[in-house]
Amino acid sequence: MNEGTLIGSLVLAVVIAVLIGFFIRRLVTGWRHRIERQIEAIGNLPALPDTVGPVLTGPTPGLYVGSTIAPHWNDKVAAAALGFRSKAVLTRYPEGIMLQRSGTGPIWIPDESIVAVRGERAMAGKALTHEGIVAIRWKLPSGTEIDTGFRADDRRETNKWVKEDV
User: Fold this and answer.
1) Are 135 and 161 in contact (CB under 8 A)?
2) What is the pTM of this model?
3) Where is the PH domain (predicted)?
4) Is 57-163 assigned to CATH 2.102.10.10?
5) Tell me: the pLDDT tens digits for 27-57?
6) Range list of β-strands (E), 22-144
7) Closest-CA residue to 149 (of 121, 130, 129)
8) Segments making up each domain of the chain, as ranges
9) In what helix (H) or strand (E) does residue 152 lie, and over which residues does it extend?
10) Residue 13: what are its φ and ψ, rounded to 5°?
């Protein structure tokens, strides 16, 4: 390789690295602005109860898909650490639904806040060929309605959640 080709290759590599850094910075900035816009609408999540009754449904292992502002299935919530996918376990109690996520804190959905539990094909950027996502629509203490999505590891478990009369 001659010296001119080497210098040209190095310049091109630097330009590509700068462009990648620029786009990553723009993504992070956009995510921060989304959080700032949503903080007031989302507010604080409900506190975990001290005690709960017997398990009604579950525990069901799977994937926390994310939460979206209802009724827009692709308007992902970034505030209150609701924007990150993670492995999770979904459990129903008489007092509400517990979504225990690995890596972040649990989400408690009080029974009186639940509007609907239904099956969906797509939510928060996750699309399936069948209705395999359990979408729980609930009202936050701030008054905003959100959909929280969960995909069970075993598809048969989804039917137990969707057929449940909430």
Assistant:
1) no
2) 0.74
3) 42-164
4) no
5) 988 878 877 777 777 888 888 888 888 888 8
6) 57-69, 86-93, 96-101, 107-110, 114-120, 122-123, 126-127, 133-139
7) 121
8) 1-42, 57-163
9) strand 145-152
10) -65, -40
